[in-house]
Inverse folding.
């Protein structure tokens, strides 16, 4: 199923993702129905957030700030089978205080979306372990292609 224009708007899709990486469905990802288990898509979505942060933030920023996923929701469109190559693409929405939404699109090598995942992430001060407002410069790190 190709995602409709209306759904793309709701998910906040960008034309070009800010960060992307490739994965291949492995034996450990497959459930009793013979396709990738839904929890694996959630793991890939979390991995996308972590990889994106590490790609754009200096070691000093990574030591100062920690991102915590506080919510996750997904829509599954087409099953993924053992050995299927996938592209995991991600970008973020506008910050709201200490939070922003992260969007993840998982696409097969055929260009068809397999899943769309939306997560809410909170910025945490690594020392105080308290939420912190996402300031302009920090938010700006996520806007350009990593």
């Amino acid at each position: 199923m190709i995602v409709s224009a209306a759904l793309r708007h709701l998910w906040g899709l960008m034309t070009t993702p800010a960060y992307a990486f490739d994965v291949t469905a492995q034996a450990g990802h497959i459930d009793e129905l013979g396709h990738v288990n839904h929890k694996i898509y959630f793991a890939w979505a979390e991995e996308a957030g972590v990889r994106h942060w590490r790609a754009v933030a200096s070691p000093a920023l990574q030591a100062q700030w920690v991102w915590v996923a506080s919510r996750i929701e997904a829509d599954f469109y087409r099953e993924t089978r053992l050995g299927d190559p996938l592209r995991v693409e991600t970008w973020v929405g506008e910050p709201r205080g200490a939070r922003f939404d992260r969007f993840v699109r998982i696409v097969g090598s055929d260009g068809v979306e397999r899943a769309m995942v939306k997560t809410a992430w909170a910025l945490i001060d690594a020392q105080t372990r308290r939420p912190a407002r996402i300031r302009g410069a920090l938010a700006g790190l996520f806007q350009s292609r990593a």
Q: What stands out?
A: Residues 5-140 form a domain with the Thiol Ester Dehydrase; Chain A fold (CATH 3.10.129.10). The longest helix spans residues 38-56. Confidence is low (pLDDT under 50) at residues 1-6. The beta strands are 19-24, 65-76, 85-92, 99-108, 113-125.
